[in-house]
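General statements about sequence and structure are easier to judge against a single worked case. In the encoding step, the backbone of a single protein was reduced to a row of integers, each denoting a local shape. The record that follows shows the chain in one-letter code together with its fold in token form.
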Amino acid sequence: MQDLDDALRARVTAAVDARRDEILGFFRDLVRIPSETHPPGGDEGPCQRFVAERLRTIGLEPDLFEPWSVPGIETHPGWWPGYDYTDRPNVVARWAGTGGGRSLILNGHIDVVPAGDRSLWTHDPYGAEEVGGRIYGRGTADQKIGIAAMIMAVAILREAGIRAAGDVILESVVNEELGGYNGTLACCVRGYAADAAVVTEASDLNVAAAAKGGQVYTLTVPGLAFHHAMWERGVSALDNAIRLKEALVSWERLRAEETRADHYFGDRARALHPRAVHADTVWHLEAGDREIMANPTSARMSFWVDHLPGEDREAMLARFEAHVLAVAAEDPWMRDHPPVLERAIMRPFSGVSVPPDAPIVRSLRAAAAATLGREVEVVGLEGATDAMIFNLYTEVPAVVFCGGSFATAHAPDEWVEAEDVVRSTRALALAILEFCGVG
């Protein structure tokens, strides 16, 4: 196999730069086709057919299949039930290598969260407008940038006559958002495998070799109602919920201390992200009845609790639950009227990681450095991705790598830098050759 030398890197860079307009045009076309997820269904079909046609135009034969059509999928331990996959096909294509190299999966999800209230957007969520070097639209960062970059990386290498030694498998999957993940699972069960996988979620072009797991909880706190003029005779469920919110904060402090040495989420990570272990992310609180002027008799709050790669998920969650209930038991009312702590019905999210010196990590770092002219970080990712499916249920080590940022995802006026789309294409083209070898 040919070594990836500076001359070849320069050739790849020139080939990508020459196709800048085509890269951005394809990306904007993807954004303009809505592919929202609406559990239990979704609208990915038209966009996936567009992806399939693009693969055909670059000389690859796409495999389209709905996740529930894969034999044995619904009895797989990783399958999460309750979804409808009518007209929601995965699209997979293989670019065969010359032989003798490592194989690589490039994976991305085509589904996006709904645009939501259009009045909150200053740009059409499906207009793919480019303003001031930014391209706006739902799914730009999460994660059509990855779909566009991985397909264009292969297209440009093929057009330039540069062959990889190992096979490259392109996967555009459905049903990632809102905890689905059955799209990627179906690819695995269908038999698509490789020596490593890159999930092309936004990572700011850092190599995300780990991700946290966790659990959504609902905590219901009881109270005792008295007329508001006799408030002191009752018990406010809201006041007690606030006390238990402090229990979440104390758990977070405890976890931050005991995970200080964690490579991906310890002190090193906290230098970049002060709250690398979350436990008090309360996003919903309700209490009382606005038409009854009395102590709230019930308060409910919903929140997320993290756990880290390498930890026993069930043991960690059991510890957390005991911590909250012990704090509640310190209060005389809650000791006799304990709150109810419930786990949401959801796919279990487990922390996963790949060693920081794994071959795919080294290849991605080399490709990113050649693209950016500087070293990039190997980081832990705050949120879960389809990399979890590979790392839990297959022998394929999976990491996350692409341009764009989670900071703009799922928000009105979601955007990515246009230059990041081109950088991502260049970096993935180089990563293919770094990892798979040159034929």
